[in-house]
Design goal:
Strand order of the largest sheet: 2-1-3-4-5
Helix content: 25-40%
CATH class: Alpha Beta
Bound molecules: iron/sulfur cluster
Number of helices: 5
């Protein structure tokens, strides 16, 4: 199967989850490894991310795994407004990731600071510290929105070339 001009598998009759599974195969040729970073959230977004791993959403069936080390990660999934205490850790986490690497801002706080925008202890979104590839809106975003956001993010990678 070939990808669309944006790298994503065309919709056809597939739902977003199956498109994500096939897009991961097409672009990486293996599973997608995600490092989750809480940069100062209320844990609402983190709860929705945890729901991705429950038996209903079961995103491991799509070829997605959460990893503890950024050195094993393709994608950095960041929740929460970027608190100043987390800035250096976030930069070091990003720099430890192998290229190509993706950064996804998850939820209103990560996108713009959300309800914490303008606060003295944080930034107005993670984009002030990290290069953001995809933003997933919501407070918090539902698991379905997270799956769609991951689909958009993985679609930005060049297709997997087994001869390379
Ligand atoms: S976007 Fe909403 S749910 Fe997510 S960390 Fe911010 S306040 Fe919490």
């Amino acid at each position: 199967m070939t990808g669309g001009s944006n790298g994503m598998i065309p919709a056809g009759d597939l739902d977003a989850a199956q498109r994500l599974r096939r897009t991961i195969q097409h672009t990486l040729g293996r599973s997608l490894h995600i490092r989750h970073l809480d940069a100062g959230s209320c844990n609402g977004c983190d709860s929705e991310i945890a729901a991705l791993l429950n038996p209903y959403h079961d995103i491991q069936r799509l070829g997605i795994d959460f990893v503890a080390s950024p050195r094993h990660a393709d994608l950095l999934l960041v929740t929460g407004t970027m608190t100043r205490n987390l800035e250096q850790a976030a930069k070091r986490t990003y720099e430890a990731m192998p290229e190509p690497r993706l950064v996804v801002a998850t939820g209103a706080c990560a996108i713009s600071g959300g309800v914490f925008a303008g606060a003295y202890a944080g930034r107005d979104g993670i984009g002030e510290v990290l290069p953001v590839d995809v933003r997933i809106p919501g407070c918090p975003p539902r698991p379905e929105a997270l799956i769609h956001g991951l689909l958009v993010a993985v679609g930005r990678l060049a297709p997997f070339d087994p001869a390379a």
